[in-house]
Design a protein that fits this description.
The longest helix is centred in the C-terminal third of the chain and has 29 residues, at 530-558. The chain is an alpha/beta fold. It is 45% helix and 12% strand. It has a seven-stranded mixed beta sheet with strand order 11-2-3-4-5-8-17. Strands 1-12-13 form a three-stranded mixed beta sheet. A two-stranded antiparallel sheet has the order 6-7. It folds into three domains: 3-171, no CATH class; 201-435, Anaerobic Ribonucleotide-triphosphate Reductase Large Chain (Alpha-Beta Barrel); 480-715, Anaerobic Ribonucleotide-triphosphate Reductase Large Chain (Alpha-Beta Barrel). The two termini are 48 Å apart.
């Protein structure tokens, strides 16, 4: 057994004396270090959750020894030498060496805190080593976890002022290595690399033209190539049977184009790592909606399926109001192209009362073909698909657009792959295709007027690790996270020029959270309680306040985003819409009036499934699925426990499928007031749920002002008993 591993095992025996005997027994059974780490992880239980940390320590000791031996073979000694070597190998981008000299890299190395590796659980460290650290082309790990965080920090601080830059490197490194904030997976994976695509997701409006549709599919392929997900709004594409150049019945409809996106997602698989991912959105009044609702179901014509995509429906207030009042009313489905041809406007370009007025105008116009259905039948199709597939996602378009701080410059048609982004979007427009002579060569030049092609730049505050009651600590964390995200906008490698233009125009970011249930359990707050709602209201109002303040201070330093003039931020309407009337909010409003806002969009709560595992906390805003469960890995089945599980927290980790989902909806409504974009809200149902119960949850979410609903996750519970109902 290697020296470093023996040293760590002795240290673990001192740190966990009550586990020392068992640890020594495991060492006698297994001498291979990685196998020993897995064996230790398998000891994890509700009664002995600390084995997750012990196993992580063993795994860390093993891989550190292997890496150290390999670097000695290469003759690479210091962090500075390693950085130079990685750049020469094409694994780090040369921009790191172009920006930092040897003295700065030596200084950066002094920031490294190897003891912070102890914060990892086995699952978190195993994921980090398997997915995030730099590897050679032969698959050999070349970074320690702390070097990874430092490399990311060096990237994020590239454009800071020279005299302040190393200070920001340290602040970014501390924030990440202490697991107080997690950057999105593309940022963690790609920062410091030659192709540094740092954004999680993109959103495009698909135009109603052959050139436009194929441009959108091409855009999706390029985004997917570099690891980005995509939200695609198909609400402008004409319905099946609509006319093309005056020929009735010629259009194939939305489904055929959606299938093309599906095939692209499978084909562009990121060098064989994973296939592309896209959510496709359609309006609740689009004539192709019934077929769209069956994209992922198992019954029906397979030629009309798209099993690899995630359908989502954009609902106006009118839909839910009618569903609440009387499901026997009639609902009219129409073609957007036909409406534009007959009425001279695009119905999807309006929201709220203006949309309702124009919808009734279209319904009353006999020149427009209607596919009339009983609302009950349409709702049944929606709910059946949700129960079977978890989709379609819900996008409440009127609530989204009413709260849009940049409504003066555009419209929000849909969200992204995980339903947390809500930013202005518009289709690109083809202008000309002409032959020109350039350098004596005849070339074909295509001109395109770019639309608003949304980019999602994400990070999450780890509420399970942050002291949310301490204003100074929270202010520092939020300020650093907002600055890091603002830097991502300028330091990103964009797969498309449209994306870069929109990102620069609004400078939109998405600061979210992970560890929400972890936070509540540590404070002995039950999910199903008014105390939960009150605490969430306080925490998210404070996070929002600190994020806005940080962005405004950045504006004073760097300037406001280009579309700031006329926005709700400038007029103060943002604060009035949310009822922010206290003295500190009034002072902040005045401050913004003087110095502006750096970012047009600020907060968005993403799911954080992978990054929450890295940080050893609960995912996003979700309750835990299980306090304790077995995770199937390639070579073993490993136990996993809820973070910080113990006698003090056990009864506060009630599991998701046992909860009354109304409390989750109410909590989302409380948080939504303080989130300018949206949230990835999951609902958890069992086989006992009726369709009416699911519908009531969706109506309640709409009534409470929740903008989006992500998955409806179903699970049978016939033989399970709730473990959190004991007094």
């Amino acid at each position: 057994m290697n020296g470093r591993l023996q040293e760590w095992i002795r240290e673990a025996g001192r740190a966990y004396p009550e586990r020392k005997e068992k640890l020594e027994d495991l060492c006698r059974k297994e001498e291979d270090g990685r196998a020993l780490a897995r064996l230790a992880a398998e000891q994890t239980s509700v009664e002995e959750p600390e084995w997750e940390r012990i196993a992580a320590g063993i795994l860390n000791a093993v891989f550190q020894e292997e890496l150290s031996d390999y670097l000695k073979e290469l003759g690479v000694d210091s962090f500075a030498e390693k950085t130079e070597w990685l750049c020469r190998e094409g694994l780090y981008g040369f921009y790191i060496l172009d920006s930092y000299n040897r003295e700065e890299l030596l200084e950066a190395a002094t920031f490294l805190c190897p003891e912070r590796d102890r914060l990892f659980t086995y699952a978190g460290l195993d994921l980090l080593l398997g997915r995030y650290v730099i590897r050679s082309r032969q698959g050999r790990i070349l970074e320690t976890p702390q070097e990874m965080y430092l490399g990311i920090a060096l990237h994020l601080a590239l454009r800071e002022r020279k005299e302040e830059r190393m200070g920001w490197v340290k602040r970014f490194y501390d924030l990440l290595s202490l697991q107080q904030v997690t950057m999105a997976t593309p940022t963690l994976s790609n920062a410091r690399k030659p192709f540094h695509q740092l954004s999680s997701c993109f959103i495009d409006v698909v135009p109603d033209s052959l050139d436009g549709i194929y441009r959108s599919v091409d855009s999706f392929a390029k985004v997917s190539k570099f690891g980005g997900g995509m939200g695609m709004y198909f609400g402008k594409v004409r319905a099946a049977g609509s006319s093309i150049r005056g020929f009735d019945g010629a259009a194939g409809g939305v489904i055929r184009w959606v299938r093309l996106v599906n095939d692209t997602a499978v084909a562009v698989d990121q060098l064989g790592m994973r296939q592309g991912a896209a959510a496709v959105y359609l309006d609740a009044w689009h004539r192709d909606l019934p077929e769209f609702l069956q994209l992922r179901t198992n019954n029906g014509d397979d030629r009309m399926k798209a099993h690899d995509l995630f359908p989502a429906v954009c609902y106006p207030d009118l839909f839910w109001r009618m569903a609440e009042e009387d499901l026997d009313q009639k609902w009219h489905l129409m073609c957007p192209h036909e409406i534009m041809t007959v009425k001279g406007y695009c119905l999807e370009d309006f929201f709220g009362e203006e949309w309702e007025k124009r919808y009734e105008d279209c319904v009353g116009d006999s020149r427009i073909t209607k596919r009339t259905v009983v609302l009950k039948d349409l709702v049944r199709m929606i709910l059946k698909s949700m129960a079977e597939t978890g989709t379609p996602f819900v996008f409440n378009r009127d609530a989204v657009n009413r709260a849009n701080p940049n409504g003066h410059r555009g419209m929000i048609y849909c969200s992204n792959l995980c339903t947390e982004i809500a930013q202005n979007m518009s289709p690109a427009e083809h202008l000309t295709t002409e032959v020109r002579e350039i350098n004596g060569e005849r070339v074909v030049v295509t001109s395109v007027k770019p639309g608003d092609f949304v980019v999602c730049n994400l990070a999450s505050l780890n509420l399970g690790m942050l002291p949310v009651e301490e204003e100074k600590a929270m202010a520092s964390a939020v300020e650093t996270a907002v600055r890091a995200l603002d830097n991502v906008i300028d330091l990103n490698f964009y797969p498309l020029p449209y994306a870069e233009l929109t990102s620069q125009k609004y400078r939109g970011i998405g600061l979210g959270v992970s560890g929400y249930h972890h936070m509540l359990a540590k404070r002995k707050i039950r999910w199903e309680s008014e105390e939960h709602l009150k605490f969430a209201d306080q925490v998210f109002e404070e996070i929002n306040y600190l994020a806005i303040k940080a962005s405004s201070r950045l504006a004073a330093e760097r300037g406001s985003y280009p579309a700031f003039s006329g926005s709700d931020w400038e007029t103060g309407e943002y604060f009035r819409k949310r009822g922010y009337e206290s003295k500190k909010w009034k002072e902040l409003e005045a401050e913004i009036g003087k110095q502006g806002m750096r970012n047009g969009y600020l907060m968005a709560a993403a799911p954080t499934s992978s990054t929450s595992i890295l940080a050893g906390t609960t995912a996003g805003l979700d309750p835990v699925m299980k306090k304790f469960f077995l995770e199937e890995k390639k070579h073993s089945i490993l136990p996993r426990v809820a973070p910080d599980l113990g006698p003090d927290t056990f009864w506060y980790y009630k599991e998701a499928h046992h909860m009354d989902q109304i409390w989750s909806v109410r909590a989302a409504a409380v948080r939504q007031r303080h989130i300018d974009q949206a949230q990835s809200l999951n609902l958890y149902i069992t086989n006992d749920f009726t369709m009416r119960q699911i519908l009531n949850l969706l109506i309640r979410a709409w009534e409470e002002g929740v903008k989006t609903v992500y998955y409806v996750r179903s699970r049978a519970l016939e033989v399970e008993e709730c473990e959190s109902c004991s007094s």
